[in-house]
Write a structure and sequence with these properties.
11 helices; alpha/beta; 37 strands; 5-stranded parallel β-sheet
Length: 700
């Protein structure tokens, strides 16, 4: 395909050339008026000069026609795997590919779209925009999209220069039921109800015989689910009470109904962090000592702790007959604290308290029952614990994990964790811990020494730290539903003062207190997962006091199970790395321990709207003069339509040929060389002179 055109390259601006032309016209007019015979040749000579100044050239373009481009977008997202959509897609893509490849002067651009990362859904608009940006718009004859129509970025669909044809998979009779979490708090106060708003709704062509109620199952942290019958289409408000701190995983499940498209959107997970409104601690101090304020400072430093602190002191030599009720400036509310409101406390601490008759024996019996019912008691013992005034001489002996022998070690010793303590979450991993074997103390820096300890015997709890002569220093036990800890020394304050290098006093005491208050991160036997942000991988962690841990069974959202072996990576800590094949809800189980892990949403975005529809892409289709066609009615034939004409009908869809071309070669040739213009002008001028001279001779 060749085209000719004239181009100009004047030596002077066109304005000057126009003025010169006007002057030439005036001169020619004057010549005509004067009756000069050679005015025609002189006018031609002036015209040749003006043309020479304008420098006309002949441009020849040699071009070739370009093929049309048709986009074929193949949606392979998760929602396209429902029902028989994958088979519909395969058949349609193969058929359309054959039709396009059979058309002359037409090229196919295939685009395959899967699930976007981070649960972003089907990004059909972005995929089409990127494909269009890579091709010349003048060559695009059309775009075909084989999809269920659920584009999660439809606003990014580009303005196509040719028809957009959406070919819908699925069926008109499809229907589905899903569970929608409308609002859920990210945290809740332990023991107080929180509200979760949810709704069960139907989508698509719901059959008339579909049940109007649904069975909703609710399970917390993998426990046995509770079942409820709820109405479909109604907003529900569920009150929920958290019973422990840390992460609480609440799983909601709808029982599948026959005929619904999928059950992948029947589950939902809410992860809430359980927090205590206020931790109520009762601190009962006895004889003043150098570390008396250790526990008070620790507890007051935590804004979430409500501390009630009493110092009860009456030396045995005090024999002045003063009634007990008059020993303090304010009345000591013993009955209120140890009888009426004792169960409101999360922890009771006795710091060097001696039983001197201030508290009746019945109160100690009440404290022991408080522990069995789920309370916590911590005894920080001093020399009084080895005397007749010891708490062991009260009803508390029934719950204390060890008995004082009556011996007090008044010597320098190094607190050290036991083999069991290296595995216990209270003492495991404390910075600077000395070795279990005293013969290896010189190999590395370690904690500072303490100077006093009460010897314990008849230990019934777990000894996690030892001290002088290997005697138990920290003993912990469970009694009924509650917990008891016995620290056989009042010397922890030496670490805080930096004596002999100090030690992790604050962290140790904090862990003891939080273990007693049943914080989940300090449980000896635990199974949990550490999810890696931005991926489907997580670390399985099994914490155990045993020296071995069996494999963990992982059950995926599709019901398949996988067994994963664990390796001990630290004392009492067994781990394994595992990558899930897809997002969803995974259940970890080992023995009696279970844990639910949510990777991404339990119901991915791909399953929020599962009914195939062209509504989401309707605006883009209308703007391109395209159409929406259902594949269940048959794969349409591709036709050629002119721009602006209807491009979709029964059994057919249209593309618009563009007839684009590109220039292969350009040649530019001057009409005449400069010397030819000069010769031509000279000849015309001479001709005009000769013509006029002949006329003058005739008149003569």
């Amino acid at each position: 395909m060749n085209t000719l055109s004239v181009i100009w390259a004047p030596l002077v601006p066109w304005e000057i050339l126009a003025i010169a032309g006007a002057i030439c016209v005036v001169l020619l007019g004057f010549a005509v008026w004067r009756g000069l015979r050679g005015w025609i040749l002189r006018g031609l000579a002036l015209g040749v000069i003006l043309l020479a100044i304008a420098q006309p050239s002949i441009q020849t373009e040699e071009g070739k026609s370009l093929s049309d481009i048709v986009f074929l977008l193949d949606d392979r997202s998760s929602s396209q795997k429902l029902s028989d959509r994958a088979e519909q897609t395969d058949e349609a893509v193969a058929n359309l590919t054959r039709q396009i490849e059979a058309r002359p002067n037409t090229e196919l651009r295939r685009i395959t779209v899967g699930d976007a990362p981070d649960n972003a859904g089907s990004l059909l608009g972005s995929a089409m925009a990127e494909a269009l940006a890579a091709e010349p718009r003048a060559r695009v004859a059309g775009a075909l999209m084989v999809t269920d129509g659920q584009a999660h970025d439809a606003a990014l669909m580009p303005d196509l220069p040719a028809p957009l044809q959406v070919l819908l998979t699925g069926h008109k009779t499809d229907w589905d039921r899903r569970l929608v979490i409308q609002s859920a708090p990210s945290f809740g106060i332990i023991g107080e109800p929180v509200s979760i708003r949810l709704k069960v709704e139907d989508m698509g062509q719901v059959p008339a015989d579909a049940p109007k109620t649904a069975e909703l199952k609710i399970a917390i942290d993998g426990a046995a689910p509770q079942s409820y019958q709820v109405n479909v289409g109604e907003d529900l408000e569920l009150p929920l009470t958290l019973d422990h701190g840390g992460q609480n995983v609440v799983q909601f499940s709808l029982t599948p109904v026959a005929g619904e498209l999928t059950d992948r959107n029947n589950d939902a997970v809410v992860q809430m962090n359980g927090v205590r409104d206020r931790l109520r601690v009762l601190l009962v101090s006895g004889e003043p000592h150098a570390g008396e304020r250790t526990w008070r400072n620790l507890l007051k430093s935590d804004a979430a702790v409500d501390l009630v602190h009493f110092t009860i002191l009456r030396p045995p030599e005090k024999q002045d007959g003063v009634p007990v009720s008059e020993l303090s400036l304010i009345a000591f509310p013993t009955r209120e604290l140890f009888v009426e409101k004792i169960h409101e406390f999360d922890l009771i601490i006795f710091d060097r308290y001696a039983a001197r008759g201030i508290l009746p024996q019945g109160y100690f019996a009440n404290i022991a029952q408080y522990v069995r019912d789920g309370g916590a008691v911590l005894v920080s013992a001093g020399p009084e614990f080895a005397t007749v005034e010891s708490l062991w001489q009260t009803p508390l002996k029934d719950i204390l994990p060890a008995r004082p022998t009556g011996r007090v070690f008044s010597e320098s010793y190094l607190p050290r964790p036991t083999e069991l303590g290296l595995r216990h979450p209270v003492t495991a991993g404390l910075t600077g811990a000395p070795p279990v074997d005293p013969s290896k103390d010189g190999e590395a820096p370690h904690w500072g020494h303490w100077l006093r300890q009460i010897e314990l015997g008849d230990v019934t709890g777990e000894t996690v730290m030892t001290g002088a002569e290997g005697s138990p220093l920290l003993v912990m036990s469970r009694e009924g539903k509650g917990r008891v800890a016995l620290l056989a020394s009042d010397q922890a304050w030496l670490w805080d003062r930096g004596y002999d290098g100090g030690g992790p006093q604050l962290e140790l005491l904090r862990r003891i207190a939080h273990w007693e208050m049943k914080e989940p991160e300090l449980e000896e036997e635990a199974l949990f997962a550490e999810v890696q942000p931005g991926s489907l991988g997580f670390t399985i962690v099994r914490r155990s006091m045993a020296k071995e841990a069996g494999p963990v069974t992982i059950t995926g959202p599709d019901g398949t199970s996988t067994t994963v072996a664990l390796q001990e990576t630290a004392p009492g800590r067994f781990t394994a790395q595992w990558t899930a094949p897809e997002a969803g809800l995974y259940r970890l189980k080992q023995g009696d321990l279970e844990r639910v892990v949510a990777l991404g949403p339990a119901s991915p975005r791909e399953y929020e709207h599962t009914i195939a529809s062209g509504d989401v892409l309707a605006q883009a289709v209308a703007g391109s003069n395209g159409g929406v066609t259902r594949l269940e009615d048959g794969i349409p034939q591709i036709r050629t339509v002119r721009e602006g004409r209807p491009s979709a009908g029964t059994g057919w869809i249209g593309i618009t040929p563009r007839g684009a071309s590109e220039v292969a070669d350009i040649r530019v040739m001057p009409v005449l060389p400069p010397w030819a213009w000069l010769v031509l002008a000279a000849l015309l001028s001479i001709g005009a002179w000769l013509w006029e001279g002949r006329g003058r001779r005739r008149r003569a």
